[in-house]
Amino acid sequence: MSAGTGDIPRVFSTGDKGTFGWYTAEVRWPIIVQNAIDDTQAAIDESTNELKKQQGAVIKGQLAQLKQDIEQNRKPPMLPEDVKEYEPFNVTLRENDSQTWLNGDWLFLEVLMYRIINVYFKAQSEWTQFDIFERLKDSTFKSSKSGVLDLALYYHGLAEKFNGQPEAIPPLFQEFMEISLWGNATDLSLLANASLDDISAIQNAAHRLKQKSNILIDDTNKTFEYLKSFKGDARVDFVLDNSGFELYTDLLFSLFLLDFKLASKVVMHGKNIPYMVSDVMIKDFENIIKQLEDPEFFPTDDRTHLDYVASKIKGYVADNKLSIEAHPFWTGPLDYWHLDPSETKYGGAECHKVLSQAQLNIFKGDLNYRKLTGDRVWPRTTSWERSIGPLSHNGLVTLSLRTAKADVIVGLPEGKDEELSKYWVEQGNEYGSWWAASGKWAVICFNDGTTK
């Protein structure tokens, strides 16, 4: 994947044949919309409200039309002109009015698709607050019961055993960083299951070493040295990704930071609309606490460890040491190069000001990585600092925890992409470059916000 040297490369397009973005538009988007149609019908069937049923039928028809428009490669529609939040979408659509669903800017069109779906629901009085993805979020989290219970047991045990022992903090920091990192991987076996008998098990277990080999860039130590310099008086912000199990792992990481006095406050940033199927909204944050406490949601004979984790989370929320907010910028079409004091029109400067109050900003997951890098066709050896543009020097201290699930990836040493591409083909896959979209490799990328 080439790009001009010295110039900022173009963004990935859904028309780039043989890329994961091309496959996403052609195959995954119609499935996502069809699932939304099916879940709308399920909600209609469960309702006794006739108006809701009628309005639901309208939404179903609109979703069916959207699916057809994608499949038939039509132009995406403009959004309602009377809503200020939609302005950056419409400006972009006017500036690039030749793009179609299957031949246009992948990141923009993906964000637009979810916004269009939300517009359909918001236009109907009985459906304005309906989360079309909630059914899937809840069922997926419920199916994660084993991992949830194991991690609750794990956290409770180590908090009682190792809190107050300074020598335990560095390896545990690495442990919870990686638990949060892999939290959005579908393969829960990637998560740590280290013994509580000895802290050294965390460092030396064979599965840990195997997992670490799939972390291609690892700035964990750099991040820890930076964070510990604040001697516990640090605010850490999370720009969240998925709800359910990943949010649970993010909360455990937050508990560790607060309990072991690496941070004094954690602020989480979620989404203001149902988004990317499983992204965290404020109500998902509130729901997860209830779900952890609910014996019917997670039935188990021994609730000791789950109750411990839930009470810890609730305690920090009550003390205002753990909170969540949602700014419209996070669901807008702009990449994070616009997360800058100069971006005064669409919320970029406002969010930059909020994040600048934190000593460390952790961007979770694949979508945030794509927005950090602009989802551009960077050569895969491009430095992290170059790929994040203004964020490398505009004062925000950033950490990207990303399980790779898209085409863009940077910071690799010479020859690594070729090595992994060859390996991926040898495993029977058609496109070698898709190793970077498989979710099997990850990166931990730190930047102190002062790199010129």
UniProtKB/TrEMBL annotation:
Catalysed conversion reaction: beta-D-fructose 6-phosphate = dihydroxyacetone + D-glyceraldehyde 3-phosphate; beta-D-fructose 1-phosphate + H2O = D-fructose + phosphate
Residue intervals of the Damage-control phosphatase ARMT1-like metal-binding domain: 24-419
Any Pfam family: ARMT1-like_dom
UniProt-listed Gene3D superfamilies: 1.20.930.60, Uncharacterised protein PF01937, DUF89, domain 3
Keywords: Hydrolase, Manganese, Metal-binding
Superkingdom of the source species: Eukaryota
EC number assigned by the record: 3.1.3.-
Repeat found in the keyword field: no
Top-level class of the enzyme under EC nomenclature: hydrolase
Cofactor(s) this protein cannot do without: Mn(2+); Ni(2+)
Primary role: Metal-dependent phosphatase that shows phosphatase activity against several substrates, including fructose-1-phosphate and fructose-6-phosphate. Its preference for fructose-1-phosphate, a strong glycating agent that causes DNA damage rather than a canonical yeast metabolite, suggests a damage-control function in hexose phosphate metabolism.
Family per record: Belongs to the damage-control phosphatase family. Sugar phosphate phosphatase III subfamily.
Entry domain remark: Subfamily III proteins have a conserved RTxK motif about 40-50 residues from the C-terminus; the threonine may be replaced by serine or cysteine.
Protein name: Sugar phosphate phosphatase
The organism's taxonomic lineage, starting at the top: Eukaryota, Fungi, Dikarya, Ascomycota, Saccharomycotina
